[in-house]
Structures are given as structure tokens and as C-alpha cells.
Amino acid sequence: ILLGIVVGNGYTMSRRNRQECFNMYILRVYFIAYLLFIIYNYALCILVL
User: Fold this and answer.
1) CB atoms inside a 10 Å sphere around CB 21
2) Where are the transmembrane segments (predicted)?
3) What string of pLDDT tens digits covers the 49 residues of the chain?
């Protein structure tokens, strides 16, 4: 499934302009970092309590 996502992203990247895909990549990285931040805080709260 992950491989299909990567191949699909590469396919759309070659078809679209590079700037738009770069923006999508940045958004995805920020989203993943945000999720990791929430999970990290959640784990800290559980450990403290």
C-alpha cells in the first residue's frame, strides 16, 4: 500500500508543476509532525498521571 502511494505521488509529481507538489509535500510533513507532537504530549500526560 505504501509503495503504491509513493509510486502514485511520483506519477502525479511528474504530471503537475513542481511548485504545487512541493507545497503538498511540505503540508504532509507539517501534518505528520503535528500528529507526532500530539501523540508525544498525550504519552507524556499518561506517564505523568
Assistant:
1) 16
2) 25-43
3) 566 666 666 666 566 566 677 778 888 889 999 999 999 999 888 888 7
Measured CA to CA, the distance from residue 35 to residue 4 in angstroms comes to 23
**At CA 34, angle to CA 10 and CA 37, rounded to 5?**
130
Amino acid symbol at 34: Y
What is the grid cell recorded at 41?
504530549
Nearest Cα to Cα of residue 13 among 23, 33, 32, 27: 23
Instruction: For cell 500528529, name the residue.
Output: 35
**Is residue 12 a contact partner of residue 21, using CB atoms and an 8 Å limit?**
yes
Would you kindly state where each structural domain of the chain is located, as residue ranges?
2-48
CA distances from 48 to 37, 41, 42 (A): 16, 10, 10
